[in-house]
Amino acid sequence: MRVLISNDDGINAPGLRALQKGFSAFADARVAAPETERSAVGHAITIANPLRVREVTDHGKKFGWAIDGTPADCVKIALKALLNKKPDILVSGVNHGANLATNVIYSGTVSAATEGTILGIPSIAVSLCTWEKNADFSSAVKYGVEIAKVTVKNGLPRGTLLNVNVPSIPEGKIKGIKVCRQSNCIFEVGFDKRSDLRGMDYYWQGGKMQVDDPDKSTDIMSVEDGWVTITPIQYDLTNHSFLEELASWKW
């Protein structure tokens, strides 16, 4: 199996390193990841500046490439310019932090997988649902590897990727895998106004997820209940159910 690994936390992120190690035990796993952290950049790409690529080794062996671009840049340049052979699957992660509900729109991790999907590669995004500094990525790697194997075996519909979230609990307490829909919950943003040492105002963005979706089987509620969630998502943003009504409007 040939695997391309990317992320948005950067090439030195522990989640990515753990994922590469997990796949390297049985597959040809190459990494194309941002040189530095590029979290929450969404599907941005670089068009006004050149992309610089640095080859990275690990204990004398080829590891992959560090790229001074976005996650989508990394996947695009890897598939179009760096790899000699087409990968069987692209796996983005393991992200340090959940990518649930509407947060998938902002996620560079999900966008790396989306770019792979656009370019015709079966792709999955894997996230560990914690922001703890010393997080244990072992369960996320185990599930990510197994889900990738099943995905390669079965294939995915054109334009569809899998968004995987793993609860940060002891592996023995994980209930299993649940396929579920994306929650409609949104991240309620707040801005903390502060002043720097020169008296100039600035704003620090923060907030929290407003869990108000009544459906208890969504990705958010299922992760909180101890399940590894898999949500099939797509880059076709068309509201197909509204097309006919919209066409009937008097323009």
Describe the structure in your own words.
The structure is a single chain. The protein is an alpha/beta fold and 251 residues long. The protein has one domain (2-184, 214-247): Stationary-phase Survival Protein Sure Homolog, Chain: A, CATH 3.40.1210. It contains 6 helices and 11 strands. The protein has helices spanning 14-24, 71-82, 108-118, 138-154, 219-224, 240-247; strands at 2-6, 28-34, 53-58, 61-67, 89-96, 123-129, 160-167, 176-179, 186-195, 201-210, 227-234. Strands 3-4-2-1-5-6-7-11-8 form a 9-stranded mixed β-sheet, sandwiched between helices. The protein has a two-stranded antiparallel sheet with strand order 9-10. Helix 1 (14-24) crosses helix 4 (138-154) and helix 2 (71-82) runs parallel beside helix 3 (108-118). It is globular, with a radius of gyration of 19 Å. The model has no long low-confidence stretch (mean pLDDT 95).
Percent of residues in β-strands: 25-35%
Q: CATH-wise, what's the superfamily?
A: Survival protein SurE-like phosphatase/nucleotidase
Number of helices: 6
Q: What is the radius of gyration computed over CA atoms, rounded to a whole number of angstroms?
A: 19 Å
Name the shape in a single word: globular
Q: What is the topology, as strand order, of the major beta sheet?
A: 3-4-2-1-5-6-7-11-8
Low-confidence stretches: none
Using DSSP, what is the number of strands?
Answer: 11
Name the CATH class. Alpha Beta
Mean pLDDT: 95
